[in-house]
Amino acid sequence: MNLLKANGIDLAYESFGDDDAEAILLIAGLGTQMIRWTIPFCLDLAARGYRVIRFDNRDAGCSTHFADRSIPDFGTLAAMLMAGQRPDVPYTLHDMAGDAIGLLDALSIDRAHVVGRSMGGMIAQIVASEHPDRVLSLTSIMSGSGNPSLPPAAPDVMAMMTTRAPDPFADEAGFLAHGLAFARRIAGSGYPFDEETQRALVLEELRRAHDPGGFGRQIAAIAVTGDRRTRLATITAPTLVVHGADDPLILPACGADTASSIPGAEFMLVSGMGHDLPPALYRTVADAVERVARRGRQQ
Questions:
Q1: For residues 226 and 126, is the Cβ–Cβ distance under 8 A?
Q2: What single-letter DSSP state applies at residue 132?
Q3: Would you call 199 helix, strand, or coil by DSSP?
Q4: How do residues 237-291 score in pLDDT, each as one tens digit?
Q5: Band (76; pLDDT cuts 50, 70, 90)
Q6: For the chain, how many structural domains are there in total?
């Protein structure tokens, strides 16, 4: 793992492949760390001739945390937004997009293929809309457009996501059970759920950093950023939108809306995929990323 200063904060990152190769920047999702972009997936892309970079978003993993900044609880945040009020939050997704650009600057990378999953897809969309000269292609995975008219997450999924997990240092078993239950619920029906791999991933994230407040601050960043469709309409980079047909957190309609909001975007609905990226789909998704990357290279 490496650490550098970007956009005024410290960002932890790792790079795979030839430093002089065309870059793919992988952006992680809400409350998760760069290791969710697993080493086998990164190596698959790197073997195709790319420099693959994964990093911890702010408030996650080994990057800068904003623990001194408070935010409203989820209920208060939602109520304020419903009332047309703008909560005071530590940062927005636009700041997080600035982190991604700052990382590229620090690594002297002029242009990259930008790939984001879930919240990372939202950040990638903003990068592509605000910094078109820096984006060769865009891949938005299991993400949405912020359109408020779209169906929300399944109620039980939202409840599981927003219920605070037990303190892992007082009740590690309870913490693990909470994380595994959520991972199992959002997984797709088409691929086996690997509990041992998920358990190891949760424990590895816990070892790297534990900051429940970071999750809340990232939720707030999503909430106040709101509807992005106007920005999506300005994206000029070749774009692929990948979504799981079984996704119960960000429903497939959200992926379809994202694709329809971006001129010329391709929509790829994956049967049996939920709000996760199981190993059986690494090759499928990597093939798709490479396909849109080739389009970006031709521009």
A1: no
A2: G
A3: helix
A4: 999 999 999 999 999 999 999 999 999 999 999 999 999 999 999 999 999 999 9
A5: confident
A6: 1
Determine whether 256 is exposed, middle or buried from the number of CB atoms within 10 Å of its CB (0-12, 13-18, 19+): middle
| Amino acid letter, residue 19 | D
Closest CA relative to residue 12, chosen from 67, 68, 54, 69: 54
For residues 140 and 268, give the distance between their C-alpha atoms in angstroms, rounded to a whole number: 10
pTM > 0.90: yes
User: What is the domain range of residue 133?
Assistant: 2-297
How far CA 155 is from CA of 70, 141, 152, 239, 250, in Å, comes to 26, 22, 8, 31, 12
Quick check: 140 and 125 in contact, CB under 8 A?
yes
State the amino acid at position 147 in one-letter form. N
CB 117 within 8 A of CB 27: yes
- Comparing C-alpha atoms, which of 32, 52, 34 is closest to residue 42? 52
Sorted by sequence, the CB contacts under 8 Å of residue 242 that are 6+ apart come out as 139, 140, 141, 142, 255, 268, 270, 285, 288
Q: What is the CATH number of the domain that holds 146?
A: 3.40.50.1820
State the residue for tokens 């994202």: 258
